């Protein structure tokens, strides 16, 4: 598959916007070396075109029109195909201020390159066969990783853990197609029946393998995007203190005055490698204050959208009507009940709590003393992984597009199995199997339209 018809040389700033010790301008394409030759003057007098591939050379960037020195730099030339894009690539490592970076980028554009589109370097790596589409998508996941666990998942997919599984399944489906097509070419009835029976068993095995991958999708999505977690409870029950304890630093306002948090505060929290996109909401209670009322209504809406709800109750207070109302909000939601202030004399009726909790997990904590937090983190980790092997040991599906393709693959396989069970001819089964094979190919990019590819790479940053 090669849709690369654009022979333009592209360039872009590959480092983050702002000041830094080092900034990088990246150039890729058949004019990359010639552009570097016009701009770069090495301290040894060697021209860029004569630099050995993959060696670092010290020198200056010179404006060819004015002869002015723009910056001292290190230049790395990576000749095709031993580069990220499999084209000639030049990287200019300069001082990391916006002015030298912009000046050098402008000079590359004047000398014949064009500004790269978002993700175009990685797109060229894909189109030149250096990466498949699942691996290319893992690049942006690495950039956006929020914890070590999400990074390991992304690196595993970049190294080809998921792609290897998908290619194996496609190979098995292709062997089924070949077996059925052989039976079509030799239409003796007993051969067709035997081939159909063999293929039916293989379909069941592939369905099981696809189901295993799909079982990782929820965990993979959470590792990639974060577990949307909402903290709810009455005012002054310890919601902001819990957020600060999980963050291990003070970000939310914590006071002894009820109703301090009037809006929601969103933070990412690292819980044993799992990124929790945690939202500390306004306390849910009856109020006449218009600002507080808006916050309360927003909290109720967030509960319905959450992956996980952490409900805080006060062990030193009886179960109030407001607590029971909050418990009713949890219907259909994954939730953990945290009974805080367990170091104080207990007044909470746990028997009454059981009647309203719906057999949900209950953790007793004293956030001020740091008690019960380790148990809470363990419970959250178990909910996310659900007994699966840890990331890095197997492929994780962490992309909605991939999960959707796998679900559609299983649907096509189910249709193929039903076709066999109805005793229809092998060529009808082949149609369903080929559809499943193509759906799996969408994950690796072997069978996907250019418009989808453009849409995927448009999510990348410029320079990657």
TrEMBL record:
Cofactors required: K(+)
Domain TrmE-type G residue range list: 226-385
Location of this chain's protein in the cell: Cytoplasm
GO molecular function: GTP binding; GTPase activity; identical protein binding; metal ion binding
GO biological process: tRNA methylation; tRNA wobble uridine modification
Main location: cytoplasm
Binding site for Mg(2+): 240, 261
Entry's EC annotation: 3.6.-.-
InterPro entries: G_TrmE (IPR031168), GTP-bd (IPR006073), GTP-bd_TrmE_N (IPR018948), GTPase_MnmE (IPR004520), MnmE_dom2 (IPR027368), MnmE_helical (IPR025867), P-loop_NTPase (IPR027417), Small_GTP-bd (IPR005225)
tRNA processing in keyword set: yes
GO CC terms, sorted: cytosol
Coiled-coil blocks: none
Cofactor stoichiometry and binding remark: Binds 1 potassium ion per subunit.
Residues binding K(+): 236, 255, 257, 260
Positions with a binding annotation for (6S)-5-formyl-5,6,7,8-tetrahydrofolate: 26, 91, 130, 464
Residues that, per the record, bind GTP: 236-241, 255-261, 280-283
Family: Belongs to the TRAFAC class TrmE-Era-EngA-EngB-Septin-like GTPase superfamily. TrmE GTPase family.
Main function: Exhibits a very high intrinsic GTPase hydrolysis rate. Involved in the addition of a carboxymethylaminomethyl (cmnm) group at the wobble position (U34) of certain tRNAs, forming tRNA-cmnm(5)s(2)U34.
Name listed for the protein in its UniProt record: tRNA modification GTPase MnmE
